Amino acid sequence: MDLELDLLRTFVAVVDTGGFTRAAERVHLTQSTISQQIKRLEENVGHSLIIRERSPGGAQVTEEGELLLGYARRLLAISAEAEQALRRPAAPKTVRLGVPEDFAGRRLIDLLSGFSKASPHLRLDTVSGWSFELRRLLDNGDIDLALVKREPSDAHCLGRWPEALVWVAGKSGELDADPVPLAMFPHGCIYRQRATRAIEATGRMWRIAYTSQGLIGVQAAVASGVGISLLPMDAVLAEHRRLTPADGFPEQPPSELALIAPSPRLDAPARALADFLVRNVGSIQQGTPSDD
User: Fold this and answer.
1) Residue 55: band (very low, low, confident or very high) from pLDDT cuts 50, 70, 90
2) Residue 173 above 70 pLDDT?
3) Where do the domains of the chain lie?
4) In this structure, which topology does domain 165-253 adopt according to CATH?
5) In angstroms, rounded to a whole number, what is the distance separating the alpha carbons of residues 53 and 168?
């Protein structure tokens, strides 16, 4: 049984309009073509479908025609739905990025916003967190790429940038306190590990005077003289005082910002974002605008 949609459309038009003439006007065919299509449909299904055209109520259907009518309407509706779905613009591909809680702030957000505007065919989902949390999300497949803070390493990455670290205190903070009061991020943070080990290497003790989940809290604690901290250069505020080895705080080698992925083989959306970040992250580290 061959249920061609064009024939079913003509059949429904004849029933809905009450005759071949009006059906011809609806589907923009001649009356003779309408008659031919109804005859062809009847031959295909092996049953008469129209009892008579001219009657007070218009064209009437046979019992088989009434049964086919319900299926014809459903098939035509499904066809129209499929056509509409195929004409609809494709949904954008999603790429998921993890970024450090304490990196670049507004400049990074502006950069990622620029990527989204330049890539309307992609949808960027971004999550902020500490590097150890971002690694877990990456390992679990919850994100596709991550910018993480780490010790300089030869481990595989898509891009790497050195990050200068400096000791900072408040303008009037005491520097000779023992144990040294520290304003730090949570356990697992590279700056916390660096700071505590460096102070221990000088033979002094330390205590955690303030812990914050966010950069703003640590910055404020340092500015208020609550504690001393080790921060990336771009996180130093005008209210902070940079400390040197002459103050009893040894200079620290740079840490590293790295762009990592679970595999070097990326799909097209992740590759597009990775290439964009490799080109531009260095510029926002230096505080200069991006060309992209």
Assistant:
1) low
2) no
3) 5-87, 93-163+256-285, 165-253
4) D-Maltodextrin-Binding Protein; domain 2 (3.40.190)
5) 94
Cβ atoms 42, 49 nearer than 8 A? yes
| CB 97 within 8 Å of CB 270 | no
- In the CATH scheme, what is the code of domain 5-87? 1.10.10.10
Q: What distance lies between CA 263 and its chain's CA centroid?
A: 18
**pLDDT above 70: residue 194:** yes
Tell me the whole-structure pTM to 2 decimals: 0.65
Angstrom distances, CA of residue 170 to CA of 167, 221, 240, 245, 248: 11, 8, 5, 17, 15
What dotted CATH number matches 93-163+256-285? 3.40.190.10
| Residue 110: C-alpha distances to residues 73, 91, 106, 215, 289 (Å) | 52, 24, 6, 18, 10
Cβ neighbours, 10 Å, residue 147: 23
